[in-house]
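Justification of computing resources. Each target in the renewal requires a structure prediction run like the one illustrated here; the chain below, 178 residues long, is used simply to show the kind of job we budget for.
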Amino acid sequence: MKMKATVPKVTLWTINSILALAGLVVMNIYVLRTCKQCVFFGHIQEVERIFTSGSMIWCMFIMSGCFVSFGTGLVVLLGEFRKFKNVSMSFFNQSSNFLILRASLLWTFLAAIVSAVGFFTWCQSFKVNSCFKNASQDWHAFTPKHSDCFGASAWQILLNVFLWGSFLLQSLSWFHYL
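Resulting structure tokens:
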């Protein structure tokens, strides 16, 4: 028996697409602001003023999770709107819909996990200050130069909220399919 959704599918996927797009924008601004260094899984030595960034692959994986979630939202919305317009999408059937949703759900979940664990790892590397109260640090004196991580915790929290929100909305849509 199909579970009746309390919120229309179009609303769920519209909000999901907005969250995923916002996550993409935040991640791009965040990477550019930290001089193209990935802070996730990074390590900071405050006394020596050395910042070792995490692998850029982690940031790209998180960005791809946002992109996949956004793309899935667009595909599902296009599939919903084709019911109201005479749009031919013969390649788009129920089984491919289910497969796309499962892949997107898994990818978004993994991106959210990587983002949360990467943020936690970076915060744990602080010994003198806290990652939430790093305004007193002179980031321009750190090696490498221009690694501006001021406010990085706010960007990371915002990104985590967007990713987990997107995952939650996709999960609600998943239960709508079952």
